[in-house]
User: Fold this.
Amino acid sequence: MVTVNIACVEELNLVKIIFEGEWSMRDEVPTTASVIYDVIAKAKKCSDVVFDVSRLKKWDTSFISFAIKLMKSLKGCRLKFDQKCLPTKMLNIINLANSKNASTCDSENKARYGKFWKTLFERCRNRVSLFCESLNFIGELILESLRTFCGRSKFRLKEFLLIIEQVGVDALPIVALISFLVGLILAFVSIIQLRKFGAGIYCADLVGIAVMREMGCLMTAVIISGRTGAAYAATIGTMMVNEEIDAMRTTGLSCFGFIVLPRVFALVVMMPLLCIFSDIIGICGGMFAAIAMLNMNATQYLMQTKMAISVNDVFCGLSKSVIFAALIATIGCLRGMQCGRDAEAVGKVTTSAVVSSITSIIIADAVFALIFNAFGI
Assistant:
């Protein structure tokens, strides 16, 4: 057993902590908190602290651990500890433990610091590499398009028509459903507010302009991003996994002319048509809500819509749809070309294609809004 006595020597301006008995990890020993509490209580006029271990008959490494913790606690309480009071053997062990802890902390800090910069460097390098790949892909796509228009590159018409069917005709049901619901919701919300002022008929103006300028092309682009853009990335990514792209390059065939261009051209051709179809269905959805809630007839609603929309509204929607189509097709094919060599990579590039396409669509729509506002369109 060990006992700890604390004596205050005011003449020397110090507090003496006296350890007596045998200190072993198997025995019950005092806690650091209790000793610190007693020291603070008696050190009101003293600032220095010393250990008296002359009466300590036996001790092990548990006492060294206790002493180190007590020194740190005394330092936190702004009390000065004099290490010279300790025996040489005990002081050597304490210094060795402190130096080892300091070196371990330094090595851990250096490892964390080095890992942070390494990770940051790797991410920056990957982003730069992806950016360069994207520029290279866009450049090759433009060159191959010019060769095709000049008749210097082979373009398979049958595959082009097949992709048009997949992109356009097969997408009509989902585009019709979403567009109808969007028009219905726009009309429902506007009717509730406009009816308070006796201007419910102007819901046709709001729905017509909103669908023609924004919602028709935007919702169609989002649908095509999740449907066609993901399909492009998955198809080309699977071809990369199966090494079909490598086989085409080995035989001297252009993967852009046979794989990328038909998909890009098909989507650019069909997207404006899908946008027009979406506009018509969206207006029909608004008309359905107006007839149900305002007791209007179809003729009144269509005449009001005709007076509200203009050629500029139609031009805005169609111009956006072409750019959206180019973005979706390019990003889908690019992500497919960047696919790895395993099955998991196909899922990753498909997800990346959808997220990148939708993000680019929203950004492009915001840019169009600024341009149209600047030119008063």
User: Anything to note?
Assistant: The chain has eleven helices and four strands. The first helix runs from residue 32 to 42. The longest strand covers residues 48-58.
